[in-house]
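Quick question, first post here. What does this chain look like in 3D?
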Amino acid sequence: ALLDARVRPFLRLLHKRFGTMLALYTAVEPGIFGALAMYETGVEDRFASLIAEAQKQWKGVGEDHSIVQLAELLLRYGVRRGASDIHIEPQETETVVRLRLDGLLRRIVSFSKDVHERLLLRIKVLANLATDEHAVPQDGKILYQSPDGMRVDVRVSIVPTIHGGKVVMRLLVSEEQALPLESLGLLERDRKILGE
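> Answer (accepted):
Ran it through. Tokens below.
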């Protein structure tokens, strides 16, 4: 998939290199990043190492950089996968993180309750919520910019449950990043038809 359909010289170079004609598909940048994220490797390992580091730091003394990195990784991964929501759900013995992808909640990672409490605190700080309030629901907002430049409004909702605070983060792409018709890679005649 390519961002620009006007790359015929590149296709000829690939044809010479591989000896076969390749099909040309154009796509928008978020679609390409989303597809790459689906095949991204090592994310599970990165989650596992951050969670292990967070559990070690909990027992030790010092700043908790792993929780900061875990929160960043959750947001970045959710945005790159094109998730509409990130759910952090405390259960009796563990906390489960799920992404809403194409309308379905998919489990991506789970971790212990001590990591949950510190991650919940980090999210409250990012969303400017009361960190000492645990008995009432709270709503807030995080303005997040991913490393690839995508700006996302993250609506945070925290609801107390018997196992701890349940977090739902709704990922909303900023309006200024809505795609204009010209950026969809349509032919001129197709754009005219849609513009009518």
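The mean pLDDT is 82.
The first strand starts at residue 85 and ends at 90.
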